[in-house]
Amino acid sequence: EDQVTQSPEALRLQEGESSSLNCSYTVSGLRGLFWYRQDPGKGPEFLFTLYSAGEEKEKERLKATLTKKESFLHITAPKPEDSATYLCAVNSGNTPLVFGKGTRLSVIA
Amino acid sequence: ETGVTQTPRHLVMGMTNKKSLKCEQHLGHNAMYWYKQSAKKPLELMFVYSLEERVENNSVPSRFSPECPNSSHLFLHLHTLQPEDSALYLCASSQSQGKGETQYFGPGTRLLVL
Lengths: 109, 114
Description:
Structural class of chain A: mainly beta
Number of helices of chain A: 0
Order of helices and strands of chain B: EEEEEEEEEEE
Radius of gyration of chain A: 13 Å
Oligomer: heterodimer
Distance between the termini of chain B: 31 Å
């Protein structure tokens, strides 16, 4: 059974304090790993797709990396507007998409 | 963001009511999905449609009934719901089903069952 575990559950950072969010996964045949951002009361907003170990993608202050067992979302010098829940999901040969519970990020000015 | 729209955005219904949620995608995609998002739980996949055919039904109670009349529209018909069905219902679409395709989500319908 495909599984996704995200840690930490919640993270509180000072503005400018860089950190990383973790997504550990167990799947049979990874076809893609996805990161989304979700603001309260809204639908998830797509950030990145990673397909193979060693792949990296960047967007503004965010950088996603992928290994054979986990993915990291690095946040460099975060701002208060980066506060949101970040969701990780995997697609394998078994299911379209399996999500983790998310990491709730708060960035304090 | 207008790629995937959902109506209504908020819905309050009694347990004996019948209502429908609507989703429309303007991205030219061939696959559409319904998810349920409850507090403290991961998104739960409910239904998958590919080229207007239902390809997955994750043991969802029969009080939820999906309908996909064409590749741009998806409905979720609701009847005799329970209070535990209160949640955020999300619609998504992708170019095709599975195979690493990125799913794009709508804003969701916040449902409260009294």
